[in-house]
Amino acid sequence: MVTVVSRQGCHLCEVAETEVARICGELDVPWEVTDVDADPELRAEYGDQVPVILIDGQEHGYWRVEEERFRAALATR
C-alpha cells in the first residue's frame, strides 16, 4: 500500500497525488491519501515535509515523487 501524507491547499501535495495515482494505476498498486493535519502524531513527524510518500508504512521520500526511484521501490516490494 502506498500512502501520500498530504495537506489541504498544498500545491506540491496535489502534484504528488496526481503522480502517485498515475504510477500506482499503471502498476495496479493500491494507494491512499492521509491528511497530515488530521493526526497530531503525523503532524509532529511529517508536518514540515509534506507531501511524504510511504510504501507499506515506511517512508520512501518527501516533497517530490522521483518516478524512476518510486517505480523501482514498488517493483521490489
UniProtKB/TrEMBL annotation:
Q: Could you tell me which InterPro entries the record lists for this protein?
A: Glutaredoxin-like (IPR008554), Thioredoxin-like_sf (IPR036249)
Task: Classify the source by domain of life.
Answer: Bacteria
Protein name (database record) = Glutaredoxin
In its UniProt entry, the species of origin is given as: Actinophytocola algeriensis
Lineage per the UniProt record: Bacteria, Bacillati, Actinomycetota, Actinomycetes, Pseudonocardiales
